[in-house]
Amino acid sequence: MTEEQRMQRELRSVRPRHDDPELPDDITANDLDRIARNELKTLTKENAETVGRHLAMAARVIEENPQLAHQHVMSAARRAGRIGVVRESLAITAYATGDFALALRELRTYRRISGSNDQLPLMVDSERGVGRPDRALELGRSVDRSTLSPSVQVGLAIAMSGARLDLGETDAALVELEIPQLNPNTAFSYSPELFAAYAEVLSELGREDEADEWLERASRADAALGASGDDDETIEIEEMEEDDDDALADFAADAGDDDDDDESVDAGEAARAVAAAGLGDAPATAVDPASAVEVDDADDQTNAEDDAAASVSQDDETEPDAASPKA
Fold this sequence. Notes:
disordered C terminus, 3 strands
């Protein structure tokens, strides 16, 4: 059986009794980012437009209605099951709806199509979701982390830490997070979540004072990143005392005036944004930061530093019931 025949067989289960959700007139395939649109060029023009509209609509509604987003991506998968971004989006919306077994199968298919490990953190967390933290750790160790982008390395560290917590290995969970990106003086797009995850494990260990410090760093990094506005800008931020809240608010307001007005939807990245919406405390696969925000931590200068398949792949055993992952 060829690869194409196998994927078509996997997709058959979503074709019966599936009604396409309504698409508003104001959404088009042009709402997708350039990379996603390029992937759809292997389709006919009419089919590419329909698939693109469903993906763009899924990206639009993913945070407030993941189930509807999943229905839109299923409609896309019925028409373009061989396209990597479609299978990736299907996996992510499945994850968002709590179907971790389906998410895991689709992520495997996406990796096979694309050859990319960018969704490895989500694969690891999906293994946790189906109740297999040991398999999650094994999967996370199977890839050379130096080959991954910094943001994927961070997402993987958070997922691996969560798997350690699932196994009651709290000390090891902390070690998983002690990576070079755990730098309190520099904030990237992944820093707030990494700092918060580190704080959570410290709290589990009873080190509440340290946990509070890292939670404050997470909050400060989040505020700095939000205030920067322009992704291409590097901003140095001096540590502010608690009574300097008004100054920080003024700075954020000033930076907000310079924000881009481009509201186009990035289906590839916006679909990945469901990791942030659906994972909660589990890892999000963040976009690589274009720049860092420098944070001057006056109180502490210590650097502590990834078809709608209904059938399981032949090399899989029966999936256990999905359980919500505990990050």
